[in-house]
Specification:
The chain contains 9 helices and 11 strands. The chain is an alpha/beta fold and 266 residues long. Strand 6 and strand 7 form a beta hairpin.
Length: 266
């Protein structure tokens, strides 16, 4: 018979990646222990009351890639209070000298019109950028959402070539762009420092330029209004100074341990 310290999996770090893994493992009927040193779980996507009366996303996180995965549906996060509010424009870059700004909309034409107020060259470059990267991104994510395989990656990329602009289907050039740093790619694509800065921030968020950023809210009354916290809530976990065990809605049992003030479980 399992003891209190008998776990199938121990995850060190209660950030959003660790919590997501814990949710899936618990759903697979495994006993999971999550260890977190900080007082709040969630890692880079946790929310804290930094200023009295104001809850702030301390990681300034952009919830982009999660919407290209089945995580929200698989872990039934919306049933545990997670709600997303779409923003449009989803990104905004004010020029440091106050002479203008760049807004990124879901609509490509509106975005290009905004970029053109700063650089006509970069507006056209962005249009070409989107035409190239949309099918490439879709091929990459098709690979990421399946068991890892070199052949799957190259097969997906090869299948995306006919969807690229006719003058940009060279396999070697596609591979070079895919493997180079985003700093190099952005520098060679755009000419204005404003556009380069804005695109570098978007790239750091691992976000497709047309993917809308979203603000996460919660009706569950937690301090971590993020998918990460909802993952561990979905597994009915508790984060306390001491390790507690509680019934797991997604499997047999799931627990979390955290130093600092108690984290309210469900």
């Amino acid at each position: 018979m399992p003891t209190q310290t008998d776990y199938d999996v121990i995850i060190v770090g209660g950030g959003h990646n660790g919590l997501t893994c814990a949710g899936y493992l618990a759903k697979a009927n495994l006993r999971v222990l999550v260890l977190e040193r900080y007082k709040v779980i969630g890692g880079a996507v946790c929310t804290e009351e930094v200023i009295p009366g104001y809850n702030i996303d301390i990681g300034s996180s952009a919830h982009i890639m999660i919407h290209l995965t089945p995580i929200i549906q698989d872990l039934q996060l919306e049933q545990h209070g997670l709600e997303y509010i779409d923003m449009d424009p989803f990104a905004f870059y004010p020029l440091p000298d106050g002479s203008g700004s760049i807004s990124f909309y879901r609509d490509l034409e509106k975005t290009c019109a905004s970029i053109a107020t700063v650089s006509q060259h970069d507006a056209e470059a962005y249009r070409r950028f989107m035409a190239f990267w949309k099918p490439v991104n879709e091929a990459v994510f098709d690979t990421f959402l399946n068991p890892p395989s070199v052949w799957r990656l190259f097969g997906s990329m090869a299948a995306s070539l006919p969807r690229l602009p006719a003058n940009e289907r060279n396999p070697l050039e596609v591979t070079r762009r895919l493997m180079t740093s985003y700093a190099q790619l952005i520098t060679e694509t755009f000419e204005s420092e404003a556009m380069r800065s804005a695109m570098t921030w978007l790239a750091a968020q691992s976000g497709h330029p047309l993917m809308s950023l979203r603000r996460a809210t919660s009706s569950a009354g937690t301090r971590c209004c993020t998918p990460a916290a909802q993952c561990i809530h979905a597994a009915a976990a508790v984060c306390l100074r001491r390790r507690w065990r509680v019934p797991c809605k997604l499997g047999r049992r799931c627990a979390a341990q955290c130093s600092g003030a108690p984290y309210p479980g469900r």
